[in-house]
Design brief:
mainly alpha; 6 helices; 73% helix; globular
Length: 111
């Protein structure tokens, strides 16, 4: 995220925002939400201008962000909703730091 904050373009920001919107749109479907989450991470990787990061995130795919129903399977709907809200907040913090080109804050938000 730090490299993305230093190197991002307005096109990168639009792609990241689109991925976050897609995550919100499909938040009720854990598998689709995880796929959208991977797209967000791929957008960040692309913004670094480092093909190694892109290939790593592409390789990890859903291993990086498994669908929440795998580890929250026996939990009530409220637990799923709380998780979605937590992830959304974390991702918005990362995006905000990248948009503002705040390298250290992006690094910290992604940690």
């Amino acid at each position: 995220a730090a490299f993305a904050a230093a190197r991002r373009t307005t096109e990168d920001i639009a792609t990241m925002r689109g991925a976050l919107r897609h995550m919100a749109d499909v938040s009720e479907d854990p598998v689709a939400a995880a796929a959208a989450d991977v797209e967000f991470h791929l957008a960040i990787a692309r913004a670094t201008r480092n093909d190694y990061f892109v290939r790593l995130i592409d390789f990890l795919g859903l291993r990086l962000v498994p669908p929440r129903n795998l580890y929250l399977r026996d939990q009530p709907a409220e637990a799923h909703q709380a998780y979605v809200a937590k992830v959304r907040g974390e991702h918005e913090a990362i995006l905000d730091a990248i948009v503002r080109m705040e390298v250290s804050r992006a690094r910290q938000a992604a940690w």
